[in-house]
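Forwarding these from the shared drive since the link keeps breaking.
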Amino acid sequence: MASSAARGPRCRERSRRGRSGRGSVTTGRSRSRSRAREGELRELLPLRDLDALDHSEEGVEATKSQKKTVRNQKPKSSPSDPNGPAPAETEGCGEPSRTSENGSVPPPKAPGKRGRKSKTEMLLLKLSQDLECPTPEPICVQKMLGSSEAAEGLETTPGGRPKRRAAKVALLYLQELAEELTSVYQPPAPTEGAQEPDPERIQKKRRSRRRKEEETDSDDPARDADFVPSKEVLLQAEEEEGSDAPLSEMSEPELEVVRGHGGRMSSSGRSKPQCRGLAPNGFHNSIMAPVEKCSSLTCSLRDQKYSQWEFPDWIPLAHKWTCLSESEAAPYLPAEEKSPLFSIQREGIEDDGVLYRVNRFNSLQPHEERLDMSFFVGGPVWAMEWCPSPEGSAASQYVALYCHGSMEETHSVAGLHGGPALLQLWGLGTLQQEQGSADKAGLAYAVAADHGCVWDMKFCPSGAWEPPTTARKHPQMSRLGLLAVAFSDGKVVLYSLPHPGALQRSKRTQVKDGSFHKHVICKVQCIATLQVGSIQAGNASECGQCFSLSWMPSKPHHHLAAGFYDGTVAVWNLLTKSLLQCVRQPDDSLKLYPFRCFLAHDHAVRSIEWCKADSNFLVTAGSDRKIKFWDLRRLYEPINSIKRFLSTEVAWLLPYNGVTVAQDNCYASYGLCGIHYIDAGYLGFKAYFVAPRKGTVWSISGSDWLNTVAAGDITGELVAAVLPDLAVNPLNVKRSSDRRFPVYKADLLPCSPAGSEGGEQVLPKTRLYSEMVTKSYIRFRDTDLRSFKNFPSREPMRRMHTQEVKAELSLDRLQLESLHKVRFSPNLDSHGWLVSGGQAGIIRAHCLVGLASGVGRQLLPERRAHFSNLYGDKPGSPSPAEESLLLAE
């Protein structure tokens, strides 16, 4: 102990010189702690260990400071000297440190980094190992051990830093999980021009990346954040996991949809569509993924919400349908007997320059290649609706519509007024995606009414259709559907429509003149009349005209809602037995009064729509520029009220918590007129701009099968837009222009009196139809909808973008090209078909072949097999008598 005390000052002096030579590495607190431990060590160590300590300090001092040291105190030992220091390890190499003959481990060259242990602590740890002391050893000293000793303890990196066990276990688990997922993952088919990934190259890249991570692992504190990969690792992971197909610009919500549909198997076992690369129709897979999702969702929800048979007592009776003669039917017929001149230019087909003029209630032959149909109804169209049919019925498709009697007819919305009206039912044949209808469209029959003009009409969604060959005893006829019609006298009239073939067979009614009209035009006794008020009120309605209707979308479809001029919304129970709500009339029809009325708006209710997923919710759009969402269980206040532009019509698609809105441009800000998606308020999303329009959008319709909306405006352009997944916030959806496309564009052009086109003439500035029709014609420019490949560079898309920016409106003339009504087919058999009509009275039907989804193609044969099992030998195809009726002019 005496010798130890005598040598103490000299050792402390050398220790201080060694620390000063290394530089200020540790903080003041760590220096004081190391000095205290060094003093305790010198009191415990024997003289031999203190000499070794002096040798090691001199070696470190000589290699680190590169200064002239005191050599007369202790000679510098050579690398072979067992008491001298061992050569320091190179940072990053995997060679173990050399050991001396007596088993002691000389300290390596300590890197000048923050947070390392001092030499005395490491020697103290080595002494405790020699004495087999049970004190726990610090992890940082494992760098001093050899390869054999490190294998027995914790694994260390070549830099001396122990490997993280938790991170390693987590990464191994993620690697196993990734292998399980990649075993199920089906890689997308390579697009044209894309190179297939090389498996060997991917494996080499993975091995090199793993080697690089092991070699560059160090004690940098910045690397101590576990489970946080670097940017380089993320980029390499994207290169290895991604395909070589190019991706278009997508937002974060779209990327979430992509991950949800990225080629993995769903819980039902059906493969989800790919979301990378291009779909076969030319659209990006991220655009088509919501279409596939909505097709399957629509089918499953219709199985729950729809019914096979409802309202069994409301069967059409032959004696309630009286056919009119020529003289009797004349007051109800539209005034125009011939259509305006029009031409059709189809994309990809050379224009033949033919101008068509179609007689009233006649049609053109469907185009063999493009499948489009055109027919003339006699006047401006303001109401139109498809007749629903069961999925897989392969039945003829029918469209009910109403047109004004004159091209210049106007109606006041303030008061009630009656007059003659004609409801037309047109048969379009058995429409299919690939071949369409082989026959021309024809007027099946018409219903003459005296309740004024028609503002809206709605069919019962399901349960009202039966096969045309259903055996019915006379006077009953097989039922086609139940139609509710909103008239300008404030009444809502309910009709039970028969199949055209059944009506043709039972037409034995005598007429006064003894001659029938060449078209079947009938006076019909309605099933029920729906009126606002009560049995104690007078006949005159205080609510004004009815502008919009909505039928309850879920079975048993016993509720019907309507919006009126004064802002009132009335809801009727069609199956009520209450004496206060149901009155039997002398003609055996019913008069129904609503069981619920509430004031929804300060002005007229322009549009009303029921939520298809939950019948407790309703949306209304009024002339007070407000859109309101209602919960029918608590009507004292709306769920959400949004004051925006003057809305003309709303469409509520099945899977979303909001509506797409068409609007008038009178209150719209510059650049914001068009189609918007507005959330109901539950998710809190901001409005999504679907498509800009330069003029008033009169009508909008949505397809649950295609996740698509279509809108017609005053400029004569029919535009369709594929919606993104609106269950995710669509605020940052990029390149929304890639999702919309024109179906066709109608332009009014001047012509010479002979009918040939003349570029020198100018359109007359008049609102008289007689002058416009003699000096102008309508040109329809159709888009090839079979494929959307290279669509941004095609002429219809460039024309649409030009119209969105530079379109000009001429409001001082009759807008003969304006489109007033657009409707998507709700039926699975014809879910790609779209009808539209407007001021000219020309109805056009187009098939969006390119939007047909793979899910829809799979569902159609399944549903047809299911339909044949339900109805046996009762096919849904029309009978021969019905076929002959459709072909009759």
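-- next protein --
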Amino acid sequence: MAGLFSTFNVAKSGMSAQQQVINTTSHNISNAATEGYSRQRAVLKTNAPQTTTGGVAGQIGTGVQVAAIERIRDTFLDYQVRNENSIYEQYTTREKFLSEIEGIFNEPSDSGLSTQLGTFFDAWQELSKQPQSSNARTVVAQQALALTDLINSSYNKLQNLRNNAQDLMLSSVKNINSILSELDDYNRQIVSVTASGNTPNDLMDKRDMLLDELSGKFNITVEKGLYNGVTVKPVDTNGMVTPELIQADLTSTQARFSYVSGIEQDPSDPSGNTYKITYYKCGQTDNEQSKQTLTVTGLTPDKLNDLKTNRILWADLDGTATRADGFPIRNGDTIPASELMIFKPTTGEVAGNSSIQADIDTYIDGINKIAKTLAFAVNSIHSGMQNPIDEKGTPGYDGMPFFVNADVAIYDKNMNMTNIYDILNSESGINGGNLTVNKEIIADVMKIKTRTTDFNYLTADQNTVDGEGDGSRALAIAKLRNTLILVQDVGINITNRNELFTRGGSTFSNSYMTIENNISGMTLDSYFKNMTNTLGVQSKKAQDMVASQKNVLDALNQRRDSESGVSLDEEMANLIQYQHSYTANAKVISTVDELLDVVVNGLKR
């Protein structure tokens, strides 16, 4: 039967429970500004009641106890935040790089490529009016040099930007693997603490922060397991049978990622579809021992492009590349392309980086097409169609190209070309990085061909047929400004100045000075403006998506903070309530003490 001592124990349990509740409130207040902290709450439940005997009905309560200290967390909000965060980081990455590409093109402006193209053709227009003027010829040469310098600069900057994107990809691989290692460590601690009967709230907060960070790299799925463990894997498994990055049961295998640093075509395969792949385990490029090589056969252009823009391979915990079933591929092995597992997420920083590399490649290709088209078109009018010549033979009328491949052209001390055969045959290799003006023409601008039959002579000074005032050929080059050329096919179906017209559908006439318009083509300026217009649309879309996703994320984070965050006003109100409860329990004990004094000492009197 309950007595005063039983009442004493009830009050004692109340004081003990309120003390733990106050401790939890104090912990909340202390971490009000801690990033990632989730508000905690002590869950109280009554002690097992005492069953009465002797005809007294009912049970007598025995007090209260703290059943658990739980954190307030909405897992659905976590899912929403991580999903939107993945999309946000994808477009943040794209917006950053697209903005840099816009800075490289610098359009519209007085110093952009469009303006330089116009200035270049204007110089030829003026030269056609006074072809005998060395000043007008010098202006043409210098404007052409300024144009090629700008094309070279744009090309090199785009290449550097692509290298920066690849460096960011490497950094992402290292960061992802580091996050996964930390996640695995926290996961193990959480499972261990939970199995011992405790609730590791603070450890779970740290794990959730890492999951939030990981979601910015790529979209993830998080599945709960026993003892508060979690299994983490990407949403985009890319055909992997074992895509788990973190395992709830702590015993199964876990996947990681490695970085491809080198992709080289194997010259021993005549099909051209075999490549030597070099990768570093877990992206540890500073450790040569982690360097691995593979030979991959049957690598199609599409998969090769995927590999070049993604450069991330599925790997085991050690960083060794694996097949779809998680079985490791040994260093030096030869495998078919179907067994090479490339990680290709559709959202997140990694996806944004991959897509921007593809975009940069597109703009580099566009610059290359402009450079090649400019070289093919100007050279064909300046010197005529390119005829095959014997290496030891004497060059014919195509012996004075206006534009040359800077990687090949060699000159003597007097700036005369010494390897004309190689120069002419390297014209197909001209790109945005090596396009330049023939130094022989820069040194002697009188070698610029401006007259009707200049194409029949190795150098213009050999022409004794046309008068000095003949500027017909210079005018023909100036008219290229408005000529419709199949620029989009240059470098694909059109690989030299001859094919620009035979395959491009254009035709020559009037002593190689008139190029007929191709109705399927476009002008050089229009082609470049199409590039910049596309860039503008892409950049605007990325900016809009970043702004939109930020608003969505801010709203979700506010909802999550209202659910899991600490409100100091609420905690202070609770603290007062718990203080009064503690005081009341203390008063019960004081009252019991007085009653016991009556029982023990009062009865004696």
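DSSP finds 13 helices and 15 strands in the chain. The first strand starts at residue 40 and ends at 46.

- D.
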